[in-house]
Design goal:
By secondary structure, this protein is α+β, with helices and mostly antiparallel strands. 33% of the residues lie in helices and 38% in strands. The protein has two helices and four strands. The protein has a four-stranded antiparallel sheet with strand order 1-4-3-2. The radius of gyration is 20 Å and the shape is elongated. The model has no long low-confidence stretch (mean pLDDT 90).
Length: 156
């Protein structure tokens, strides 16, 4: 009898999407509402994945937006949007892009909505964040990691 190689079927499912942390600050209010609105926006984004039990992962993206007008902070919003994902049957090479790109792509629209709602409830004009290319961000992260390890190995 020939041995049959078992191929595990790839399985992906969303178990839960939730907001882990929210912060909204408007340090210059109410004075800021009387000034001419000429905003400058600083946008930062981070991702993090934590293994849980039985092929489950907690993936979170952190979105931080600081809006200034006339060098004064109008508002600061930080949202940590997370999800619990079940991933099974993926190779080690596939897990990186799944956790670093695919899952964050699912979470970003939720974070974008939370940011928009908080800004509007804070009394400011609506802020719609532009879509993010998590595939490119992940590829950039992999490239930087490879460059760091290559430069570290040449130093030794």
């Amino acid at each position: 009898m020939a041995e049959e190689k078992q191929v595990q079927e790839k399985q992906f499912s969303i178990q839960k999407i939730y907001t882990k942390d929210i912060s909204f600050e408007s340090p210059g209010s109410p004075k800021i509402f009387t000034e001419k609105w000429e905003p400058s926006v600083d946008f930062n984004l981070g991702t993090h994945a934590t293994p849980l039990e039985d092929s489950m992962y907690d993936v979170a993206i952190t979105v931080t937006v600081t809006v200034k007008t006339n060098e004064e902070t109008a508002y600061l919003v930080e949202v940590k949007q997370a999800g619990i994902f079940s991933l099974a049957g993926f190779s080690d090479e596939e897990m990186g892009p799944m956790l670093g790109s695919f899952c964050p792509n699912i979470l970003f629209p939720y974070a974008r909505e939370v940011v928009s709602d908080l800004v509007a409830k804070g009394g400011f004009p609506q802020l719609l964040l532009a879509p993010v290319n998590f595939d490119a961000l992940y590829a950039q992260h992999v490239q930087q990691t490879q460059q760091k390890s290559a430069s570290t190995s040449t130093l030794n």
